[in-house]
């Protein structure tokens, strides 16, 4: 079936009449057919009503049924075949290999959450048996599990049209937790969104689930997103995007009669610390590695290395010579949207025009529309500390080197940074003691600390944290990538002396689900 | 040492000069000596600076050292002996037995968190070993643990001068997580607060911890509390009190340049559902049991049963006859403060003056100042649904019966309730199917669902949830009682390819701490 331009509301395909949205091929600047009809209050109302209706049944689907549903979504996405890849290429300017890889990641993520759901530890089942003879008072029978929060609003991201969008990590983890999802599709890739949305809709039908488990709305501007977050039936929000967009949703959520959690992954400049021994040992290789990370995918990653910190000296000059050479040869990359491209050019111009900032290198000149010409800047520690605007994220292949007089200054700057998704250490054996002093600072600033790698590339696994203190995210207690992401959409409920036949299966005597549980304080599978 | 009226800032005893606070004996209306000096911006600044200074060292104390510290606090509180109980009696009007019990609970709570800290599951350690040969890309070594959020502001509650105050559950769980604590003492029991604060201060010294691990401030009005929550070094807030107080702190926290989580336990009317078969079988006993729960401690519990729901009919009349008789004989209880007493009288007067509300019974008349004369009211389902003011909490021994025409109406009302700490079911075997339909509604409304008990009485254990959707609390994903409370003060950090000697002990190969960890996806002690 060709792309229709319609929204998905439960089992229906609904034409929005509030606005008309077209995707643009950023590589050519051309408008792509068809037109997508943006929805309004009526469609938000209907999607939320269906999600609410579906919630109680969906959250109590058995673990196996829920896992099978996530796997069915993965299969349906794969079944879209090359149509999905081609449409995503046209809408984003991203190359085929990247999008095929991203599809693999998206499908793998859904399957990983299926495994998480089946294993069931996320229920955090706890049983404190009754102590009827305890003095001075008996203890009742107390049992706890986690349940789904309620319908969740998910905002697709522009920079990962598959892995952080309609069927991405927020949707996968919310569905895994038992929450129906209403997606506001990103207007930069509506066709990709429709295809993935239809795949999820087909999985809902195939698995015999209530239709309200999934809906997807289009809309230009912020109106429909605001209405969605304000709807009383929505109980949590997942968002990946700009600081301005994320904080706007945080405000809407906090102003509701019933405030709700917002999980917004927003803004990070991902500092890279080039430690002295590492620089001495391999400045040239570091320069090349850094530029490869900086320019990958046009620098359009949340974890793109936006600042570098190093102690001034000959080793840093060697690094710079290598980085400047590599960057000078870097081909321009088509950016995701004209808006993102304009913001990049604006950010780069602001740095280039800042008197305290030196332009070290630019990449190859642009040869087509919406291209990102990479940029490397330098400033002093003093200037960086004096000018908060130098901490602002420039989304794309631009990075700022902060020349530090010594390691102590580097640590001071680390302490003054805003919250980050990542902090990277390039270090050798002789740097260990200096790094030991930095780690406590970095732990407070970032969700992930990495050594001798580059921050781009986020593994989907048990131990990943793609999160961090504000403004990297709105909630440092969580991650939006990896299995811990499911916890964002859960809350604990305690059952006291409830008759056995009314207890949820996860909490029954004899452990019928074979869960890891905490029984009378002891972990085990009893 | 006699009570000084001084604040505790780290190792110092500091006289506040901003205001003068006296405790009042609510039973006599008399002012108690000494005067307590309220602090201001300078003391907030100093307490927060010390907490920040202490944070990195304190959060990395070993599990054994941290547990021993919590146990030392418990011992120091017990060492205060009868002076603590007598001062608390004078300041709160609560009887000796209740306060001795509360002391036992407070000490037990600290010891339980010591056990939790030692066991270490809260670190949620996860290790995904490197897969260097994986195709198309190798996997790096990824390890995750949880770390403390940062210094925490705790607001003591008026109604539990020990268990939810200076050394109560918020403080115990924040310290267990590794967060320094700055307490804003409740002005209703400043002497009790000073004694407990000094006990904690002594434990800090005895355990050789940095002095900033604990401070305690006095202050009248909301100024000092607002300054504390707004301080950039504070990273989370624990609060037990009124809806107005809690939402005010939520607003301050959300408006910060870096918003922080607020865990406010606020307002709950704790519905009790009297199911038909239970009423038929034991209406008389239920009436007596209900009044005992309603009037316990002057009704000054967060989980006090503020509304009753039942289907009209002869069994309900039997229940009411029993309840009215019991309530009529209920002695008046001294309330905690003149302010709480005035608010109770106001709330009762509003109900009594509501045309849709019938006064069924009042307890015995007051014989002294600040006493609570219990009250039982009734209204119709229709009136309750039409008037949101009937959902407002009246703190004290007052309850409102909602006469329902049928079970379906009872379920409709359940669905219209605001968030609650508890929902109670009085039920017999023949009620099972009706209750089965109610449970999904109650799970969405309350943190704890209990059968055939009364909501007052909150066990401190693994499975407890003392929480619930707004406005019962500000964050339904948490509990303020029980071991899960520690999770409020933690956030995950991921370490990628970090050299072994820099890894935190919890994440080292060979599991030196003997923790439950998730290794390559499998739970175990490896």
TL;DR of this structure?
Two copies of one chain form a homodimer. Chain A is α/β, with parallel strands linked by helices.
What does this structure look like?
Two copies of one chain form a homodimer. Chain A is of the alpha/beta class and 526 residues long. Chain A is built from 14 helices and 23 strands. The first copy, chain A, has helices at 41-59, 63-79, 82-92, 96-119, 169-177, 190-206, 223-230, 243-255, 276-295, 314-328, 338-353, 381-386, 407-416, 432-445; strands at 7-9, 12-14, 19-25, 30-38, 126-128, 142-148, 152-155, 181-184, 214-217, 236-240, 262-265, 272-274, 307-311, 333-334, 358-362, 371-372, 375-380, 398-404, 420-426, 446-451, 490-496, 517-519, 522-524. In chain A, the strands form five sheets. Chain A has a seven-stranded mixed sheet with strand order 2-1-9-8-7-10-11, sandwiched between helices. A seven-stranded mixed sheet of chain A has the order 15-17-18-13-12-19-20, with helices on both faces. In chain A, a hairpin with a 4-residue loop joins β3 (19-25) and β4 (30-38). In chain A, α4 (96-119) packs parallel to α5. The longest helix of chain A is centred in the N-terminal third of the chain and has 24 residues, at 96-119. Chain A is globular. Chain A starts with 6 loop residues before the first strand and ends with a strand. The mean pLDDT of chain A is 97. At the A-B interface, β5, β6, α8, α14 and β20 of A face β5, β6, α8, α14 and β20 of B. β21 of chain A pairs parallel with β20 (446-451) of chain B.
